[in-house]
Amino acid sequence: MAQRFQGRDDFEATIRILGEAEGGRRAGARNGIRWDICYADENPKDNLWMVWPDFLDEHGESRSEEDELPIGVPLPAKMLIVNQDFRYKFHWTKAKVGTRFYCHEGTKRVAEGIITRITHLFENRRPSDSELMGMTVNERLWVCGLHDEFDAAILQRKREAAIQVLSKVALTTNEAAYTVDSIFKNPSYYGF
Asked: How far apart are the first and last CA of the chain?
């Protein structure tokens, strides 16, 4: 299997999934899980960051999403920082080789990790369309740094501007128009 992040990861880490006796999972997770992380010196009630793992096999390729990941075994992973704003404002100074972190499902700690290598953290980039395809619309907007621009267009009821923003995150014109029209029909349902 090819790598999920296609060379766009920010750093590499070794992650060990905690077992039930350690307060972790009863069953292993699968590759593609979207855990949040908390750096070891932070309180998870205050800071959880969308940094997603891509677990690797012994050949350095992405593990299958079908197979359960083993519990209690150190696993190599490539890590992708989802929110680009925090990537630049926060993670650039926080993520260093040797930095410890914990993976969380909500505030429950389910795995522990350590950064082993910085890869593309300091590069300016936008995810590929194929990377965006597996994300929700909100995740796409956050990753591309377009959340505020989209919200402003919606709040000002600028339909075409909102559609144009969504077209930048790999939505077709029809998908973007449907999304914007749905929000305009019931703005409170979508948090506006």
From this structure: 40
Question: Length of the chain in residues, anyone?
Answer: 192
Predicted TM-score (pTM) of the model is 0.67
Residue 4: phi and psi, rounded to 5, are -65, -40
Q: Do 21 and 100 belong together in one domain?
A: yes
Is pLDDT at 157 greater than 80 in this prediction? yes
Q: Are residues 83 and 105 in the same domain?
A: yes
- Three-class DSSP category at 19: strand
User: What range does the domain containing 79 cover?
Assistant: 11-118
Q: Locate tokens 């690797």: which residue?
A: 56
Whether the pLDDT of residue 30 is over 70: the answer is yes
Give the separation between CA 115 and CA 13, rounded to whole angstroms: 4
Across-strand partners of 74? 16
Whether 41 contacts 96, CB under 8 Å: no
Kindly report, residue by residue over 34-51, the tens digit of the pLDDT: 999 999 998 888 889 999
* Pair 79, 20: CB distance under 8 Å: no
